[in-house]
Predict the structure.
Amino acid sequence: MTCYPTQRLTSRLRPAFNRCNITTNEGGIIDEEYKVLYARDRTETTSAVWLALTTGCAVCHDHKFDPIHKKDFYSLSAFFNNTTQPVRDGNVANNPPIVVVPLPHERDRYKELGPLLAQSQQAVDQAKAEAKKAFDTEPQRVVAAEILAGLPSDGLAVQALLSEGNGNAVGVMVNGQLQVRTDNSPLEWAEGHIAPQALLISEKSNVQLQHVEVPFEFDTPFTYSAWIYLTKDNITGAVIAKMDVNTDYRGFDLYVEGGRVGGHLIHKWQENALKVTTQNALPKERWHHVTLTYDGKAKAEGLKIYVNGELRTDRQVTADKLSGTIKTEVPLRIGARSVATQASGTRVNDVRLYGRQLAADEVQRLAINTRVGYLAQLPRASLKPADLDDLFAYWLANFAPGYNESLAAHRALQGEEKAIRDRGTVAHVMQERNEEAEAFILERGEYDQRRDRVTAETPHSLPPMASDLPKNRLGLAKWLVSPEHPLTARVTVNRFWQEVFGTGLVATSGDFGISGQLPSHPELLDWLAVEFREKGWDVKQLIRSFVCSATYRQSAQTTEQKLAVDPANRLMSRGPRFRMDAEMVRDYALASAGLLSTKIGGPSVKPYQPDGVWEAVAMTPSNTRFYKRDSGESLYRRSMYTFWKRSAPPASMDIFNAPSRETCTVRRERTNTPLQALATLNDPQLIEAARHLAARAIESASDLELRIDFMAMRLLARKLEPNEREIIDGSLKSLLAHYQAQPNAANELLHVGESPVQDKLNPSELAAFTMLANELMNLDEVVTK
Amino acid sequence: MTNSSSNSQLNPFAAFQQAYARRRFLTSTAQGLGYAALGTLLGTGTSLAANPNSISGNGGLSPERLQQMLPHFAPKAKHVIYLHMVGGPSQMDLYDYKPQMNDWYDKDLPESIRNGQRLTTMTSGQSRFPIAPSKYKFAQHGKSGMWVSELLPYTSRMVDDMCFIRSMHTEAINHEPAITFIQTGNQVTGRPCLGSWLSYGLGSENENLPTFVVLVADPTNQEQVQAISARLWTAGYLPGQHAGVSFRTKGDPILFINNPPGVSSEVRRTTLDGISALNQLAYQKLGDPKPKHASSNTRWRFECKPVCLN
């Protein structure tokens, strides 16, 4: 992971602008088609935002009087066609190229960790190399007997190595006594793992161990284990079992189910049994040591599965109710239950049954020492590379203290780095390939209809790129902000003007081209653009000059004359007046109620949303199928932090014309629909905000008039006129009477929203003021900027 | 231009417009439906379909000219109910009888039919493309003799009252673009959908209800569900009030339609009256007749109006 100094980090993050487009991992897509679509989206977005040109019009063909030709479009798209980003996003959040962005106070440490990790890795490698030397030169230090002595022997009731290699007899150790059991049919054998041979289970080849006492019961702890090797996919059957299929499946087994591994403890299938398996199948054609330990407490959580000494957490519990005996008269079998259910195609070594629950470290030794003990008995020269690796791993763990120390130090650093990464975030960025940026002119815009190859060039009708600029995104960016560029500064100040005044000086803020409108005040636009550019592109200064202007500060009051001469206020005969954007409607309500969180940054949040909005449009495996609402501060963050699912945008913002964010929008439409009124009247977010504003008003004064003033100041930034006050007083009187008569209704209303009810206040009074706040919050003047 | 009149001979541009509009209507779903918008654009206040004679002279066009611009058949439809059955059985198993397919069973699709059709990555790995005929029995039904399969025993009794279109064609090779195509006339998202065009074109005779509603089904088979998205009922580049109002299967059918807990209609009436009275005062003071927020309407109703910027 590359580290960046802060300055460098900021500039690395800037290309994130180009990563806002939709990507896909849909199974049926054609990669080249989507590669073209991604580059097209980036080209159109860049054109709309910085040039206010609808270059996308030229995707299919030239237009007679349009200065942007098809060649211009594809040459411009070449700048964005040179990324290392894979077409398929893998359905993951950190689809490369990405940059890790630690929290600000951890960036220095994160930067230090890079070289430290390289050093510690080097130390680990060095210690390993030294250990390897000793491993090769002093093989005698690995003593098989010592290793095997480390195996848990306490409570070992039954053990069968299953390495006979021919015939139909197997040796079994029962409580330390060797017994021989002979099966009727000939057994099959294959290469073993901790012995030269292993039993290969098939319909015929499985072992019945008559008269072997097994001390397992549903209320006693026990353990059973085996080495297994699955020769194919989807094996299902018993590896070890003492189970009576004909009597409710009573008994226990070690079971393979479609390659997944686990076991049953059964009194009566299915209502009185435990069943646990791994969620993932074991890889075939490899040996695995499988151990099941049971604590005797008759709960599935006490039946643990270990594979190769590691406790498995990918558990699937399908039965978890056991209260009766699991003892049965049918014999213990290896490779089958009492009837059929053979795990055919499985090789087995070293079946063990313990009459106690082995601890995790014992299970681990069982998995390691059985294997290493066997390998240590063989001449080194006869070992295969995989065998040597296993043996060397044991050496490293036991005979290389230096290695273990350096490994521990390395892992600590890795852990620290991961923790910093997890606390921070990742940013999606662009990264150029080494090749020259290129694109193809596409006939009618179709991805598979390639015509001439073009390289990265800016549109021919605009001033050319300086010859010393590189033909890549950096060069393009420098060209955009060069002083002779006629569009960038004008387009940008116009968009900010639109933000503040509701309509741009050029009303078509995304189209300065031939279909766009002419500016209402061309000299003003020029002056603002030059000022903006020469003052160092200072946005804050620009906004200040807007909001401090006499134009902005004039009253929105209009007259008949103004309406006649300047109906749409394009001449700025009065102050701007337009409905706030979706985010602002919500943020304004939260701010007036004192609920708005001022926290900056961090992951997106999920505030209140009606049930079912996501579910209605989600694919079954989608990780955004179910909306899980956040709680606490996350409910009151600024709306820009709200999690955005493009196929189902946040309902309350969607209603207020927030764009879907599927493509770039430089000018939102502004409609006035009843759904908007329903949202501001009934959305729990706004009802809760009304309650908080009401509570603050009540706490601010005991006089009713002063309380109303308080709310008016918070929402309207002015006091009420006498005729307005009359209406408000009327509403309040009626609401107070209603909620005093109906305390239950008051109580219900006050419990809207997650925040606790202000229980020191009179509930009826608070409810009445809540609805009064709701009334005020719905005034045209409040939702109008 | 078989239908040219003396007017169009005098005015070649109008003649061109006429022919162009008609041709577009027949060839392009999305643009064609825009034709239905005439009623609204000409400000008749009622839909063309409801009363084609209501068109009054406007935009420099005479009533005769406007009459000529109508399609060959006078539009009669007043309502459209459109059921989009994502994941339904294939037409080849229902009503698109293809007996020849039986002769072609297990033979590869000939290149003369496939015509270089591109493949999805889901099918591109196949070594061959064998033809599979329907396994269901077809029979002719009704006076029209419509072929319908045994899977539709009830529908087959009603064939004389139905219209089957068996000439549909698409370039889309995948679910999502195909659904987008059939809803909007284009595989790429962002165009208005059928309902939005009808809302725009036919308008509504009812001021109290939305013109275009969408009912999203809750599929019984949740495991094989094909995702759909809200973009399938958006207004695209038409004004936002033509977007579908989605009625939901769970929770409130319309978002935020119900009063919050503890708020009776009596309380809501009180606050709405207050809002309305206060807004009226504000408009008087501002001298601007245009409300910016819908709750300001004196009468509480479903009225959708675009608001001019300022």
